[in-house]
Amino acid sequence: MLGLRCAPKEDLQSSSAELIYGQTLWVPGELIPTATVPWSAAGQRSSLLETAGTFMPGLRSADLVFIRHNAHHGPLRPPYDAPFRVIHHGDKSLVVDVVGGRPETVSVDRIKPAHVDVSRPLELALPPRWGRPPIAHPPPTVGMPSPSLAPLPSPAAPPSSAPLVGVQGQGGWGVTYSSTKICAVTGSTVEINCSYTYPSPWKGRANKVQKTFWFTKKKDLKAVDLTTDSEYAGRVENLCENNICTLRIRNLRERDSAEYRFRITTNQAGGRYSGSPGVTLSVTDLTVQVEPTHTNRAALKCQSSCRVPSGHYVWYKNGEKSTTSKYSTRLFTFGSTDRYSCALKGHEDFPSPAVYAPKLPSVSVSPSAEIEEGSSVTLTCSSDANPAANYTWYKEDGNQKRPPLTTEPKLLFSSINVSDSGKYFCTAENELGKTSEVVPIDVKYAPKLPSVSVSPSAEIEEGSSVTLTCSSDANPAANYTWYKENQTLPLGVKGSYNFTSTRSEDRGNYYCKSENQYGVNNSSSKYINVQYAPKLPSVSVSPSAEIEEGSSVTLTCSSDANPAANYTWYKEDEDSPKASGQIFTITDFRAEHSGSYSCGAQNKLGRSNSTFHLNAVAASWKRPAALTIPVVLLAVISLSVFLWIRRKRASRDSSEPEEREDIREET
What we know:
The protein is mainly beta. The strands form 16 sheets. A five-stranded antiparallel beta sheet has the order 6-5-4-3-7, with no helix packed on it. The protein has a five-stranded antiparallel beta sheet with strand order 8-9-11-16-15, with no helix packed on it. Strands 10, 12, 17, 18 and 19 form a five-stranded mixed beta sheet that branches. The chain folds into six domains: 48-113, SH3 type barrels, CATH 2.30.30.140; 159-283, Immunoglobulins (Immunoglobulin-like); 286-356, Immunoglobulins (Immunoglobulin-like, Sandwich), CATH 2.60.40.10; 362-387 and 400-440, Immunoglobulin-like; 451-531, Immunoglobulins (Immunoglobulin-like, Sandwich), CATH 2.60.40.10; 538-617, Immunoglobulins (Immunoglobulin-like, Sandwich). The chain contains five helices and 54 strands.
């Protein structure tokens, strides 16, 4: 039975199943795809579940449906009631207008799509009416009115029987159009009908119609006859009989959308009349509605916002004719580059726009120059796709993508940060596929606070090799300048400063400056402490004059060393040290203290000695006693000589008076 229903009939050029469902059924062999990997029960179950979702794809896009009633029914009652208009489509149920205004949710298990034969009028299922039957109104006729929720109208009747609406006119003049709004499909043919009246006689004279025509525009305040308009050349006809006129336009184009008005001119001066407002014609393209059913498969429906005239549909794949079908919905397999479109048979020159998966997105960055930290940046993604693509932005995090940043075509950074640098993916997706493109974002910024490192990080000994390294986060990379105590070092812009053999004078505070075109930043100071053995000590003696016996003597030893030196005092020919410490004091210096002394300066890196000589002199109070003896002796001798001379003179003076007395006596 399944095979019979799927077998095509030569006279119908389609199978029974295709007539009912709008597509061929899937026979069991088609349900199981050709295996390219080893068969597994779990994989087969997953494949069948996925395939099951593609049954009856037309149900997702059906406007009208049949509903199966599960209650007991008589033998002649059909199992389905219908048709009913669909209000909303769901995954497991549909909301249907069951009782003329009150929606009802119905499971898809009880529903099958209803395919409309536009060649015959269709009456929707309605609830039973009570009371008198409604007054029958004649159906609208010419043209293709815009669809509504009312039952679909019947095909156009001959112009002579068309009911006219919207009468205009005065004084016997009038134009009546059969419809004021008409919707038609590109490439089809439309007829616009009207009837007219005019007074005769008029102004006391016979009034005869000389010309009738249709127009949409005026030139120099005169209506332009459509039959003379180059845009309509060979496509329009004005058919008039018994005051009823029909404008027929073939091979409709979108630019034919306009307001069409009818004009009468008579043999009388001023005998002219235009029916205004006229008939608004809307011309729309066929479109293809896409309903995904399976991986790389989709149900395509050829449709229009206007009523589509009856006939067959021609489907095109990549611009070439693929198939012809009586029904508007077909199931196709899609490739990433495939394009499908449809047209009405007989109007193949007016196909619908093709539907296709998104092309590789184009991503633009604004501003297009270098991106500086803190600036406003906009990423824009666009892709050629029909249906229009939906966009999603991601940022790459290692080999993973972070959660979506936005689902808009534009990704905006009002104030971009350094952390925003990276690769951004724009994914364009529609019902037929998806693709993505990546754009790198490189945020430029001034150097951050530099850090200074010292290698080796242990204690630095004099003569060792030492490297100072300056590093700063910057984009583009920073240039570096080294300073010691605010003095520029001569090694230029290198990021490292190297001491091949450190010296004691290299001690001090060092810092570096990092700089690029976006800014400058200085590091904090780094103290370099070069350690070395004591230099040759220097010794000072206080007092610096001659050292007298019994005086106090202070000896001070100093030596340049890092770390600071420890001092030890020695005297020659003595094994044990005399003292330790930088200062050595001898409080009572004696002759035995005289001799050679040495000061030894020592730290963990080495030792250095300095030798000097001390001599003692006699005290000042002992030096006068040694001179007193000869002085006293000299004084005694001098005094003895003086007394001897005086005594001798005295003895001479005493003998002289006696002689004088003898002389007087003689006298």
